[in-house]
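Minutes, project check-in
Item: structure for the 246-residue chain
Input as provided by the requester:
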Amino acid sequence: MKLDQISITCTTQNQPAPYAYQQRFDIELDEDQISISFLMEYLGREDLTDEDIYEEGFTSDDDYSWKGQLPASWALELERVLGKTSYRKKQDKDTPLSISIDTADTQGSIPSEYEMWEYLTQELAQAIFEASGRELPLKLEVLSIAKAKTERHVIQGSFAERSASIIVNDTHKTINWMRLKSILKTLFLPDYLPELASDKLPRKRGIYISPEEGAWYKLGHAIIEPSKKSRTLTKLEELVEELNGL
């Protein structure tokens, strides 16, 4: 589906202040890039004091706006997602966000494929935060320590560029964006317990994940199953074995 302009509005549902927010993406497509006007506003804070807001980890000036460009790979992704989108008459009140789309052919349309659009807007917001310098590109490490061998992998991803790579024991390997998404999904299926993370580089046998600099989570200790019936740790172990084979 070819388009020249698209506006996407995401608003939190069933979320109280100071957490409630709305994001709006106004996008224009050029030949080799997309131009975006982005606005994120927090909602319903009129009755809260600054102290109320600070206690929840926010500030009184959390609204954010940005105008800039992202590469053509984003235009391709938007066209791909729009081409797979159908529409419904009403918002689902049980989803975390209400999402509406405006194009030349659709005004205030509600996508039926909620999860696909939720993920797209999350990636797009992250790309904007990265392009604006508000946040750094993705970087996390996987460390596998065995008796005979230690394997260390650095996984890097740029949401702004939609590019990804893995450094395997100092060897740089490019991977496609969909592969990165699959890796991240497997890595973050389990629950991570920050209170059990270590700030020291691990030396003992085991599998460790560092999703942020200076914090190491050990599989089976600081990384646990989210429920008794889940098998997320097994999937993570299988992923680490696959990375060790690269």
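Outcome recorded: The chain has two domains: 5-131, 138-244.
No further action items on this chain.
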